[in-house]
Write a structure and sequence with these properties.
The two termini are 27 Å apart. The chain contains six helices and 18 strands. The longest helix is centred in the last third of the chain and has 20 residues, at 261-280. It has a six-stranded mixed beta sheet, covered by helices on one side. By secondary structure, it is α/β, with parallel strands linked by helices. It has helices at 12-25, 56-65, 81-90, 160-171, 186-195, 261-280, and strands at residues 32-33, 47-48, 51-52, 69-70, 94-95, 100-104, 107-109, 112-115, 118-121, 125-131, 137-146, 155-157, 177-183, 201-205, 209-215, 218-224, 229-238, 243-252. A hairpin with a 4-residue loop joins strand 17 and strand 18 (243-252). It is globular and about 65 Å long.
C-alpha cells in the first residue's frame, strides 16, 4: 500500500490519484484489481486490536482509493475462511467470481459479502450499464476467472476455460462488449483469447513482472506488482457502426503522479501500526544495516 524507493514510485495513494484524473476526463472509468491483494504481505504476520491483520490494510487502502471491481487471486485463499470473510465484509467494491466458490460440506456456493445482516452473493457475471454525454447507452459484461491453484479446504473451482466459454455465451448477445478479468498464467490467458475471440480484452493478474500480449484482436495486460504501474485501457464503442476499439497504455506510477491525501492518510495509519508491531518485536524497520 505504501510507496516504494523512498516514496518515489508506486503506492495506493498514487493509484487513487490516477483514477481521479481519468474520472475527470470520463466518468465511465473503473478501477479494477485482478487478484492477489490480501496476501502475501508482511502485514499478515502482524497484529492490530488483538487480531492478525491478514490483509485488512489492503482493503482499507483499496476502499479509500475507490476500487470498483476485484476478482480472487490464488493468494486470497492463503488466510483462513473467517479471515477472508472479514476482509470481504469490509470491502466497498464489487467482487466477481465466475469459477471460484465457497465450499460448504459437499456444496459449492457463491462467496458472499455480509452487510447490515444481509448476504450479497458474488455474481458469476456482471453487466454494467453506461451512457455517454449525448445519452448513448451501452452494456459491458464482465467475467472473473481464477486459476484453481490454492486447494484450501473452504474453496472449490470449476474449470476456468470451460466456465469462461459458457458464461461468455450466456451474456454475449445482451451486451456490447465482454471483458475478462483473470488471475492465471499468461499462457492460460492466451488460450482464453484464442478460445473466445469475441472478448473485448483481458485484464490479467498472477505474474508480477508486467506482461503485454495481443492474440488476434485481444489485448492481454498485466501491470507491475506493488502498484509500480497500472494499465489504462480505453474501450471505444461505436453503436451506429457496431464496432469497438481498444487502446491500452501502461502508466508508471512515479513522482509525476501526486499522492492522494485521503488515501495516503490510510496508508500512513497502517504504516504506523506496522512500525509499532516491529518495535514490539525489537525490530527497527528504518535502521540501515549496510550501505553498499
Amino acid at each position: 500500500i505504501a510507496a516504494l524507493a523512498n516514496g518515489t514510485e508506486g503506492g495506493m495513494a498514487r493509484v487513487a490519484t490516477l483514477k481521479q484524473q481519468y474520472v475527470q476526463k470520463n466518468p465511465n472509468t473503473l478501477l479494477v484489481m485482478a487478484g492477489d491483494f490480501i496476501s502475501p504481505s508482511v502485514y499478515n504476520s502482524l497484529q492490530y486490536q488483538g487480531k492478525r491483520i491478514r490483509g485488512q490494510q489492503m482493503i482499507d487502502a483499496m476502499n479509500a482509493a475507490g476500487f470498483d471491481i476485484a476478482v480472487f487471486g490464488n493468494h486470497e485463499f492463503d488466510i483462513t475462511e473467517s479471515e477472508l470473510q472479514s476482509r470481504i465484509n469490509e470491502s466497498n467494491f464489487l467482487w466477481i467470481s465466475s469459477n471460484s466458490f465457497h465450499k460448504v460440506k459437499d456444496s459449492l456456493l457463491p462467496f458472499a459479502k455480509t452487510t447490515a445482516g444481509k448476504e450479497y452473493p458474488f455474481p458469476k457475471t456482471f453487466i454494467l450499464a453506461l451512457h455517454d454525454k449525448d445519452g448513448t447507452a451501452v452494456k459491458i459484461g464482465f467475467i472473473g476467472i481464477t486459476l484453481p491453484f490454492n486447494k484450501a479446504d473452504y474453496v472449490g473451482y470449476t474449470d476456468p476455460l470451460t466456465t469462461a466459454k459458457e458464461l461468455y455465451n450466456q451474456i454475449k448477445d445482451s451486451v456490447d462488449a465482454v471483458i475478462a478479468i483473470t488471475h492465471q498464467s499468461i499462457q492460460d490467458d492466451e488460450i482464453l483469447a484464442k478460445a473466445i475471440p469475441g472478448l473485448a480484452f483481458i485484464i490479467g493478474g498472477h505474474e508480477h513482472d508486467m506482461r503485454f500480449e495481443k492474440i488476434g484482436n485481444i489485448y492481454i495486460t498485466k501491470a507491475l506488482a506493488n502498484a509500480k504501474s497500472a494499465y489504462v485501457i480505453k474501450l471505444l464503442i461505436n453503436k451506429k457502426k457496431g464496432t469497438q476499439k481498444v487502446k491500452p497504455e501502461n502508466i508508471f506510477l512515479d513522482q509525476s503522479i501526486p499522492l492522494d491525501s485521503s488515501t495516503n492518510d490510510v496508508v500512513q495509519k497502517w504504516t504506523k501500526i506496522a512500525d509499532s508491531n516491529y518495535s514490539s518485536l525489537g525490530f527497527d524497520a528504518a535502521k540501515i544495516l549496510i550501505t553498499t
